[in-house]
Amino acid sequence: MEWWIWPLALFAVTFAIGVVAVLAGVGGGVLFVPIVGAVFPFHLDFVRAAGLLVALTSSLSAAPSLLAGGLASLRLAMPLALVGSITSIVGALIGFALPTGAVQVALGAAILAIAAFMWRAGRSEHPRVGEPDALATALQMHGVYRDEATGRDVHWKVHRTPAALVVFAGIGLLAGMFGLGAGWANVPAFNLLMGAPLKLSVGTSGLLLSVVDTSAAWVYVNRGAVLPLVVVPSILGAMLGAKIGARLLHVTPGPVVRNIVLAVLVIAGGRALLKGLGI
Amino acid sequence: MRDQELYARWLGVGTRIGFVVLIVSFFVYVFGLLEPHVQPRELARLWGMPVDRYVAAINGPTGWGWLRYLGRGDYLNYLGVALLASVTAVCYARVIPALTRVQAVIAALQIAVLLGAALLS
Question: ipTM of this model?
Answer without folding.
Answer: 0.95
